[in-house]
Amino acid sequence: MTRTALKMNPDLATLMHSALFSHLSRKAASTLAGSALLKTYLEGDVIFRQQEQAHFFCVVLRGYVRLTRTCDSGRIASLRICEPGDVFGECMLRAGPTYPYGAEAAENCVLAQFDLAAVRKLAEDDRSVDDAVMHVLSQNLLATLNCVAEDRLHTAPQRLAAYLLRTAQAERRQGVFRLPFRKSLLAAKLGLTPEGLSRAFALLKEHGIAVQGRTIRIEDSELLRSI
Hints:
The structure is a single chain. By secondary structure, the protein is of the alpha+beta class. The chain is built from 8 helices and 12 strands. It has helices at residues 9-16, 26-35, 116-125, 127-153, 156-170, 183-189, 194-204, 221-225, and strands spanning 2-5, 37-41, 46-48, 56-62, 65-70, 76-82, 87-88, 102-105, 109-115, 176-178, 209-212, 215-218. Helix 3 (116-125) packs across helix 4. The longest helix is centred in the middle third of the chain and has 27 residues, at 127-153. It starts with a strand and ends with a helix.
């Protein structure tokens, strides 16, 4: 892990367009951005551990972060894959004192880290801070509810098909695009085991897609939607 100041324009742009910063007053956004610690983590690095004393929250600037929950038996479940612009740990501003989940670098990543105590103090002087945090919490809650609904209502191939169609649309690609991360992360994001994801891909090859490594070709989007 390395630390630097937040000076890089692409990183600053990602920060300012995040759900948190887009709802801050101009003054609060400037103050908070100025207080950020830019940290680089290598794949597999622990950002914080479950039940560790909470001192900071983060915005992902580059790369991906995996949030996990570990049970008493040692089994680990992936809760969420955080992407650039996502906020995690913000719940600790009004909860605590320990993190309810762990966070690790799913691949090499760069994070903007914010001291909880300093942000609480800023919130006392600027109401937009609490409003912005409430927006992020609401957004994350809705995403969690949607994830639960997807798990309960759709099969693994249906979840994968929906993700591929959304990704193709977001990248404005008509037929061919590259997965933004490796398949093991995609499995975690969709709540599947790697084996379950492989089976889903195998089935979708019969429903309008071709797969070559991380490159996806959607040959028949209507057939894919019909699964």
